[in-house]
């Protein structure tokens, strides 16, 4: 079972006419923050095997790295005008 499904079961109000959850008692982020970082999500093999989910989060260094990586990737990406010029100069 995925976490969103469990959140729907724990906090959602189900509308049987539309088949959807239309309101929740708390947001997904708030619900997820109240959970342990290591939590079971499935039991298989007649209870002999349990599957666990490890919830990882980025610290400040990880978030900074992703921001810097995105900035560098945006700077290195070719602009549409450069691509058009390259395609115009390349003959088949």
Explain this structure to me?
The chain folds into two domains: 57 residues, no CATH class; 35 residues. Helices cover 46% and strands 24% of the residues. The longest helix has 17 residues. With 92 residues, the protein is α+β, with helices and mostly antiparallel strands. Strands 1-2 form a two-stranded antiparallel ribbon. It has a two-stranded antiparallel sheet with strand order 3-4. The N and C termini lie far apart (52 Å). It contains four helices and four strands; from the N terminus they run αββαββαα. The mean pLDDT is 80. Strand 1 and strand 2 form a beta hairpin.
Shape: extended
Question: Which residue ranges are poorly predicted, with pLDDT under 50 across at least 5 consecutive positions?
Answer: none
Head-to-tail CA distance between termini = 52 Å
Strands ordered across the widest β-sheet:
1-2
The oligomeric state is: single chain
Helix count equals 4
C-alpha-based Rg, rounded: 23 Å
Describe the sheet with the most strands: 2 strands, antiparallel
């Amino acid at each position: 079972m995925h976490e969103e499904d469990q959140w729907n079961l724990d906090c959602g109000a189900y509308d049987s006419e539309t088949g959807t959850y239309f309101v929740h008692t708390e947001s997904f982020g708030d619900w997820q923050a109240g959970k342990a970082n290591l939590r079971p999500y499935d039991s298989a093999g007649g209870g002999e095997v349990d599957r666990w989910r490890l919830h990882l989060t980025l610290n400040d260094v990880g978030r900074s790295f992703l921001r810097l990586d995105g900035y560098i990737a945006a700077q290195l990406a070719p602009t549409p005008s450069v691509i058009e010029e390259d395609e115009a100069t390349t003959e088949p």
